[in-house]
Amino acid sequence: MKPPAFAYYRPETVQEALQLLQKVNDAKILAGGQSLIPMLNMRLARPAAVIDINRLRELTEIQEYPDHLLVGALVRHYQLMESPLVRRFAPVVAEAERHIGHAAIRTRGTIGGSLSHADPAAELPLLATLGDWELHVASATGARVIPAREFFLGYLMTALGADELVTHIRVPKATGVSRFSEFALRAGDFALVSAAVSLNLDAHQKIDHLRLALGGVGETPWREPAIEAHYRGSEASPNLWTVIATEVADLIDPPEDLHASAAYRRQLARALLEKTLAETAADARQTLTKGGPAS
Amino acid sequence: MIPMTLTVNGQSYQLTVEPRWLLADVLREQLHLTGTHLGCEHGVCGACTVLWDGRPVRSCLTLAVTADGANILTIEGLAAEGILHPVQEAFWQEHALQCGFCTPGFILTAVHLLQENPEPTREEIREALAGNLCRCTGYQHIVNAVQRAAAALSDNHGHAPSGQ
Amino acid sequence: MAASSWIGRPVPRIEDRPLIQGLGRYVSDIQLPNQWTLVLVRSPHAHARIRAVDVTEAQRLPGVFYVATATDDEVFRRPLPGMSPIAPPVLAYERVYYVGQPVVAILAENRYVAEDAADLVKVQYEPLPSVTNVEHALKGDLLLHPELGSNIVDHVSYRRGAGHEALNQADVVVQVTLRMGRVSAQPMEPRGIAAIYHPADDLLTVYHATQSVHRAQERIAEFLGMPTSQVRVIAPDVGGGFGVKNGTYPEEALVTYFARHWGHPVKWTGDRFEEFLGTYQEREQTHHATLGVKKDGTIVALVDTYYQDNGAFPGGGIMVSRNTARNLMGPYRIPHFAIDGYTVLTNKVPQAPYRGAGRPQGHYVIERLLDRAADTLGLDRAEIRLRNLVRPEDLPYDTGIPDLVYDSGNYPEVFRDLLDLVDLPAFRREQAEARQRGVRLGLGLAAYVEISAGFGFEGARLVLSDNGTVTLYTGATNQGQGHRTSLAQILADTLGLGLEDITVVEGDTAGIPRGIGTFGSRTMIMAGNATHMAGERLIEAAKPWAAELLEAHRDDIVFDAGHFFVKGVPSRSVNWRDLTERLKAAGSAPLTGEEYFSSNVATYGFGAHAVIVEIDEATLQLRIQRYLIVHDSGTVVNPLLTNGQVIGGTIQGLGSALWEEMQFNEDGQPLTTSFLDYLLPAAVESPEIEIHHRDYRAPGNPFGFKGVGEAGIIPSQAVILAAVEDAYRDIQLRLDYAPVTPKRLFATVAEGGNRA
Fold first, then answer.
1. Helix ranges, C442-528 (H)
2. For the domain bounded by C358-449+605-750, which CATH number is listed?
């Protein structure tokens, strides 16, 4: 289990990296390496070249703007978990980070790497989908912004072109209370199913903002705005969480693998969603009584 | 082949490495620091854990060239002048190792945990060690050892060797 | 002088200081000068004809020294030594029989280059139909090895009393098909071996991650046609064994052959893939079992016919199947039985002993049958056990299996102690309350006998050094058990020395001429007693010298706690250091003592486990709330180490009860070949184990030692399945497959609980 040979490039600037991406054929970008290097070691990936972007200091910061955070693609998991900005404006990210692998994985793994890898069971693609994050993508010929829901195309597949690099991620400041939960066979493993909810209640305990997302139930993170819209204005109650969770569980078409059947995943999705809705609503109520929306 | 600098256990090395070589292999085969073990080479077992600027990393999931300029602590650098680090001492006293193959990774992970959280509960210890596999001990004595080390470190008011 | 005994003290281990500083020396850490790295190309097919092998490109790659295939030389077509009635060739020839079987051997300057070369090897296979389960294998339409005439390579059979006929005397008969999935030992250090040949002396030195240096020495010598005296095998630090580092493997033949043939050091370090593909596995059996009981729960008869899916070659698997039969009685009185076990070949990697080696299988069957019988009778699962456990008045109790006579302890008392610790009434109340919260609690109970040793010998050779310390050489080997400490504790007591005065050297054929090795929890029993006997011999050898120093007659010299003195005059004595000085002055050879302890009497530890599981009704998340063990370890040398063995074994057992299973598709492709899919228990999932010791000395050996390495793993699958069933008593859940993964539990519950 040793990597095959490859040409190695280590650009110092984003511009240099983008030129290499344009010029070099069959190149893989190396960020934290926590997904790429196992694939190299197992020789499941055999790129002709590896472009190591760990020197791109431009991509290592978290900046605050009035309504969002702009997170550099090279920000590491542990930094997301510890960042006061993230804890304040996107607390669900810090919460979910605890579940991403283990400390050693979080030391190296990056937000850009995790999103670009697009594992449907991973935490950050789920939160990106829930939170309507936007991916700032650049190539030697230009730049574009891709909304998260258009970014994930399939299992380990994204809208990213071969010459493109995710440079920053626009994370809107939370407008509702968000919670995350997942079921993994062992602590730190990839989740069989994960669920994330964002929710606000008005003064009459009615839902005025609702987002639901599931991971591990398809080739990309699952979200269905029509359902969210349908329940806007409904009165919060345990019964409602059951109704929503059941409806969603019936809609999804989860995969079967070594560790879970489709039916089991469906049950997990229902259970996690119901639980996460209830927890989020409880938080939202607390926010209400404290007066004022979540910041 | 790429020239690089690596500081390991306080000593600086000028190396020339092939880009595909894993940090673990460079430590083991070029620097002859064989205490860093390769247990799975896919990032699950944690036997190859080293500290990079004080934080744990999988040296099997790190290309050595990426660590150019980094400050690495391996198990060999933990005891200061023959005096065991309190985590090492506690692993010994509590019989927290049997075959010893996974032990370096556990010890370094525990050193990092105790820097972040000097008084962890048993549950927190287990959570922090969840990325390291041991096939011999069943973990219980390892948890005992980390608790013991935490107590020893707090008695020493942090004067013990810190690991970096 | 009256130093308290070392035996029984929880002494931290002597061997730990280097290991905690990264100074251990495992095979992979050993770098021989200019060593060549061996890498193998393994079969991707479960069964195929090899049409052609093209190694031209691989051979041409810079850094590659040699590429070998079975057609190159007769030596590669030789059968592996020590495997009968049929053994694979060292490299597959004409046919491959399982995914992972070595086909091509590559020697290169390092593993990176060797793997590049492996990628360039082109093997043309013609896939053949494969046999991937015993049901198919038994049909006989496809024989793996036609020369054997059958896919069944072993049949073990035991009868007692009226056997099957006795079922007629039963009030209730329960019948069940019980399955155990395949598991893989997965020591943290994969297998590995390195060898260097010294032509001037025609001496081959082998560094081997093995559990038995002497058996390895014999195999290597036989394979290479060398006298054993010219093969030295050293087991350096070994990173866990659990049985799978004890067999005959192709890598051993290849590394040693190449080292001698090319006169160049050669090393093979298996990686984790290879540990899944090429290392022997265990546990896979299907039992068709029947238990007849009286209305009061008393066992009348056990009938069991079982099949072991042994993979493509027999090897150590036959022993596992036979040992399963010897464990079907558990700690219970079974007046009639009829047992038939078959070892069946399939296109999978072979099975061979893994920790437990038949003990967990046998106990799984009897324990599950007792649960089923209790449920059918409406009897408490604890009660049925109390009514059938072997009683103190039955001892010595002849099980009806040849040479198995339970000899010590009090099984019912230990089981009752366990029930008291659990507090059954309190548990039942808690169970009902939890149910209101959507949490299911379940209690599992199981009892066991741990049969250890009972064959062969082990030796100890002592040498009194010039500084008055003693070195102990033994054929036992270390994979983490801590013998350097425990054997030193025994010897310290015998010789009246401190631990610092004793050095234990294990795992080196140069240290002692004969040995068997460490497996089956035999080392304390065999090497432990041998160590004491060798100590006694050393004392006897020292007495004439002591007599000379004390100017007395040899027969008047007594030895006590490190001191020799004339009977009745303890005030004037000499010690080991005085003797060494005298020996040195006299120019005499150092004193030595060598003894071999040989015994056909097994030891019978016993005990019982109780587990309380907590299952989230919605997610089926299972947490172990409490795990209790009452265990008889016989005479305990070092309680720290004993606890380590019991806890470690238990957690391994939990792995095979809850998560671990080697899964194969219908073509025989293994699907679980990494730690991402084959899930070992980690720290969060592993419960705290609460151990209560009993110490009924074994009457069958001088020190009363018993085995302790298997105690944790024997009942774990039985006890977990029982607990999960108990959590779903309301739907009468029936589990007959281990492990009970969440996926499997979900399916069983969804189907109404009656199928697994």
1. 483-495, 523
2. 3.30.365.10
